Each structure stands twice: as structure tokens, then as C-alpha cells.
Predict the structure.
Amino acid sequence: MLYREAGQFKTSYAADQAIFPILQDRWVFWGFMIVAFVVPPLTGSQYFMGPILTQLLVFGLAALGLNLLTGYAGQISLGTGGFMAVGAYACYNFALRMPELPLFVDFILGGICAAFVGVLFGLPSLRIKGFYLAVATLAAQFFLTWIFDHVGWFTNYDPAGVASAPARTLLGSWATEAGPLSFLAPINILVTGPNASPETKYLVTLAMVVVLALLAKNLVRSSTGRAWMAIRDMDIAAEIIGIRPLRTKLLAFAVSSFYCGVAGALYVFTYLGNADTEAFDLVRSFQILFMVIIGGLGSILGSFLGAAFIVLLPVVLNITASTLGEGTLPSDTLSNLELIIFGGAIIFFLIVEPRGFARLWQIGKEKLRLWPFPH
Amino acid sequence: MRVRKLLLSLVASVVVLSPISATQAAEAEQFFPMLVYRTGPYAAGGSGFFGGIEDYYTLLNMRDGGVGGVKLTWEECETAYNSDRGVECYERLKNKGPTGATVVQPLSTGITYRLIERATADKIPVMSMGYGRTDASDGRVFPYIFPIVTNYWSQNTAKIKYIGMKEGGMDKLKGKKIANLYHESSYGKETIPVLDNQAKKYGFEVKHYPVPHPGLDQKATWLQMARQYKPDWVILRGWGVMNPTALKEAKRVGFSAKKIVGVWWSGAEEDVIPAGKAAVGYVAAGFHPSGADFPVIQEILETVHGAGKGNISPQRVGTIYYNRGLISGIITVEAMRVAQKKFGTGKSLTGEQMRWGMESLNITGARIKELGAENLMSPVKVSCFDHEGGGAVKFQEWDGKKWNVITDWIPTDQSIVRPMIEESAAKYAKEKDIKPRREKDSYGSDCTVTS
């Protein structure tokens, strides 16, 4: 009844090709954006903004990166953790060794480093496909974490191999009171380090994620995205109609690794505060692959829905278990129960809707358009 | 008239005062976050340790009604020894209780690293007893971090001393080959620099062999290490399931368990029983014995477990991890008493006040006897300069049934460790732009004394 596009006419190509062609969708989107930017800082809850929302955004971004590669271009990768680590350690070294650079440039440089490494490990994709490619990318995961564990320079020779994010401001050290760009000092806020406010960390993460997600959405609607999907659906046919597999596949690896790299950098700088390779191990790569599968292959929204499921469900179960179960069940039983419920939920959702949450969302929208008269 | 006035004033005073006394009664609790892990490959350590702490707190609540009229409260959060999950748990629990979290005990070097900056900014002391970041022993740079009792580097010097003893003198170490089999994590890597340093000093050769988490696959490593490198000694720096696996692999390749020396996270019952006969003769370090023949543990068995309020199965009371948890509970409560003496009993302490208590801690032998923990723990004296505050290690041998202490207290070699700590802490201070404390602070912690 409310959700119907009757009477909304498109008079230009731009209007016809908008991301949200339906007016109600646009309202919901802008409403959601306002809520996302305004409400969490107003609550002032550090727990809500840090472990819950920032983590969700970061993993949503990483899942989005993998989704571009796996969901859109059809190349399976198990190296996500490794590419995130490249972004994180590269960003750490840029921030540590060049404090003049604005922090958001560090993030982007971290992503670019990850993109280069991604292209390198994407080369085998020209010859091998499917599971074999997954194994080849697995090599990236192990090789990259091994490098960061064993080459001291990456962690500034820390004895335990822990890279601790330095305190940096949004616009870098030149934009401070004493620097050459002192007129920028008032908006040059502290973003990382223990003394940065949780609100800043959250808002910077959110802004980065919104911009990158918007770029990704437009990228997959462009000729690049269509080329990826053509390769995914049938690479020989794609080649015959004039798509160059080398360029397309490597571009997919580059863009995907860029997103993963930025996510890794954000994870360390705006959430954890310090990095070791434990944060980017194989389990992380699998976790992000599961986010993509559960959220929906080939969907931007699905990446975030999948991330929400994987990141938040254990936390929610843990909190419910500890509030409801205090004293009734032994806590080790509660911990194991949490794992059982989490595993069960994954199986349940995959049986009910193998195409992921994004598909459920789509079905819901279609039902809503017909409501309340289903025929 | 006078009676009426008196009555009125009485009523008025009751009305005015009662909410205050009511809130005071409600506020008199001290909250401790428990970052437990009862699942995952390291559950044996996590459940034993936190069972020990919680049993001790329960004992104090039941026997004395808390500490200085303040009830001890806590809440658990399961981390499964995952550092990222540990951050989530810390953030969840840090604002609970009337004054927030007061002491965090992560029982994980990885989580300790994650929390160092956060907890310092939040003014919550982190007590990493026998683990964590070693250079945090320099309290001038790390005011809120307490690697109390003995840190990793100190322990390592004692271990090399033990190996020297077995070889017949430190000069006999020259030319010997020692393999360091370590858990590939921040915990495992922590001792690499100090071992390299000692190798240079005593002239032995050291080679480091990483084992990836969780440590179930060591076949190739042991083949390479025992058959190719042929070390005279192996230092086992394992954790959780890595330990019994290592002992079994050693047996398989024919390396004698008597030549393996474990760190104290590789020296509990849970680490050797699964290895069966392969573990007989294996020696591990420790800063306390196992067993339940201590007055304080007997009291816990009677009062707490007798009433069915235990936090662990009674069979595990008195195991290595349990006793370690108990000791850490004792140290925490003693620090709380010190802080209460200065800031007043009957009310909740803040993290800052608790930090002062920990920094002014001095548990003497007489006090340990009073607590019923004689021979269970060694004296601890903490200062701003030295957040470690202990410094001796015993070695124990597994005979197939129980751990037997085979050495006296072996002192650590601070002439090696302390300069390394100060150098490392100074580097951290420079990187993080921290000004090391050099004078008395507002609470009177004295940082001018440097010995």
C-alpha cells in the first residue's frame, strides 16, 4: 500500500538509472543514513559504537571486497585475511614513518598496496579456476601472514610482533597549529590512538565505508561490473564478445584487494588499536567468505547483512546467555551452547534460503509491493 | 512540645540520612571483569585459572562478607582465547559495577597487548601475572600494566641457569645447542630477544622453531629439529594442546623428555596427562607448586565447595592452573586492602585507586602465612620502578602421576633482563610519545627510587 511506485514517472536517463529508482527506497536510504550518522554518537555508548558498529562496518567492507571478486567476477579467494593484513601493515608503516600524511590517505595507500599484492596473487587465476584457484589464494594467506610474522621491519622490530597504531589526526601533522597548513588545524581531529574519542573513530569508519560502498555500487553497474559478471557466467563466451580475461580478472583482484586492504587498515586503526597476524589468520578469511555466502553472492547489501549475522549473532547469544543463564547453567555449558546455536542458525538459513539474506530482502520487497492484496 | 520537636527532627534526620546509607550499602561492591575461556584449544588453562580466582573471591564473600565491608562481584565474558573477542569483552564489561571494572586479568598475552593502551586511557589496571608484555615491568612507562610475580624474560634466565646447572656450570653451556619450540603468537615470540642475548653471553647456539596455532601439527618440526639440528636441550614454549602434542612427537622421534624444559604455561597436569608415558621425566618451570595441602585451599574446599558454591569441579582444585588463579586472586585482594587502607574501607575503589594499591603492594612471608598460603607463593614487592616485584622460579618434574618440585627457588638474572626492559620500554615511550614518570605522582607513588 505504502510501497508502490504507481505515479512515479522517469523523465530522464539519469532518473531511470538511479541506484534507488523508487521514491520510497530513497526515503528509507536517506533516513537510514541520517540515523547511522546521528544516533550512535548521541547514545554515547562506547560499547555500541566500538565492538558492535565499527566491527560490523569493517567486516561489511571486507565482505564487500570479497563479494566483488567472488560474487561478481566469480573468482573464489581464501586470501582475504592476508590482503587485509597487507592493508593494515602498509597503513601502519605509512602512518608511523610519514606522520605528515593525512590519515585517510594512509588508509587509501594501504588499500593500494593490498591491490598490488592482490594482482600478484591473482595471476594464477588466468590459468586455474574454481577450487584450484581457492587453493592458490590460500597460499597468499599463509605467505603474507608469514612475512609479517618474520620480517621485523613491518612491525618496527617489536619483540612480540605487534604493530600498535600510532595516534594520528585526520589531516596529518602538516595541518597542526605549528605546521605549514595551520589554517586546517580546527578540523584536524585526532582519529586513532587511545585518546581519540569513540565517536570520531566510528564516524570516520562510517564515512569511509559509505563512500567506498557507493563507489562499489556504481562500479558493478558500469561496464567493468558487466564484464566481471560476463566472465563469471561463462568466461569463453565473454572472451568471444570482446572482454579481455587478463585485464578483467586482474582488475577484479585489484579492486577486491583494495577494499579488503582498507578494511584491514580500518580494523586496526579505528577498532583494535594494534595488530598482529592473529587478527588476520585463515579463520578470518573463512569468516569473510561465509559472510559473503550467507549475505548473498553478488550483492552489495548482502555483504553487510552477512557481516551483521556473523559478527553480531555470537555477541547477542553471548549477552543473552549471560543475562538469562547466570547461575542456572554452568558457564562452560553456556559457551558451548552458544557455538551450537550459531552453527545451527547458519545451517538453517542456508537451507531456507541458499541465495542469502539479500535474496530474502528482495522477496520481502516484492511481497510488500503487493500487500495487502496478494493477487 | 519539646517531645514533638525531637520526634520531628528524628523523623527528618532519618528521612534525610536513609537514602544515603541505602545507596552506600548498595554501592559497596568491587567489580571485576572476568575474560574467561572455557571453550577452544586452551580451555584447560582458562577454566582452571578463573575457577581459582572465583573460588577465592567466593570464599571471602562467604567468610568475611567481602573485603573491608565491600562485596566482591564479577561477571564472565567468554573470549575462547581470541584476542579480538577479548577486546569486545573488555569493552562490554568495563563500565559495569559502581566504579567500573577495577582490575582486568586477561590470561592471554595477545589480549594483554590489545588492552595496554585502552586500559591505560580508561585508567583500569591490567594484571598479567606471569605473562603479557615483558617491558611493562618498567612502571614508569606503563603505569597501568602489572606483569606481576615474574615476567617472561626473567623466567627465561632462570631456565638457562637450570640448564647450566644440569650441564655442570654456566661455562659448560659453550657450544651447546638449544632449540626454542614456540607457539607462534605474541606470547610465543616474546622470549626470542632474551634467548638470543643469552646465547651471545654464554656462547651457546639457539634456533627458534615456530609452531602455528593451535599446535596440533608438529611432525615436520620435530623431525627437522630432533633429527637434523640435534639440539642438546629443547625449550618448550607451548600453550594448551600444543604441549602434550610436543611431548608425544618428541617420543616418536626418539628425543628424551628429560631434555625438554617447559615454561610455566607448559607445566600443568592438563599439559602432560594426555601425553601419557611420553611425559615422564619432563621438567617445567613454575612459580608455585600444585596440590591442595594449603590451609587456604582446604578452607575453600570446606566453605565454598562444601556449600556447593564452587566455580570448578572439586577434583580440579589444587591443580597448577587452579592454584595460579588462586594466587592471582590473593594478589588482587591484597592490593585492594592496601588501597582501602589509604582511600577508606566500606566503599568501592576506582581503577585509579586500585592502581595505587597494586603499585604499593608488599606481600611479605609473614602475610602469606597469615593468608594460609605458605609455600604456595613467594613474597611480592611492587614499586613504580619495578612492576614485576617477584623474581624466582622453581623447577618441577612430572613422574607420571604428579609434579614434584626438584629445585629450590632459582633467582632470575636481572643483570640481563633489566637493561633490556628499560631499553625496550624507552623505545615504546618514544614511539608513543609518553613521558616516563620520574617523580612522586599525585597519589604518592614514588618513581624516584630506582632499585
About this structure: Chain B touches chain A through 43 residues (CB under 8 Å).
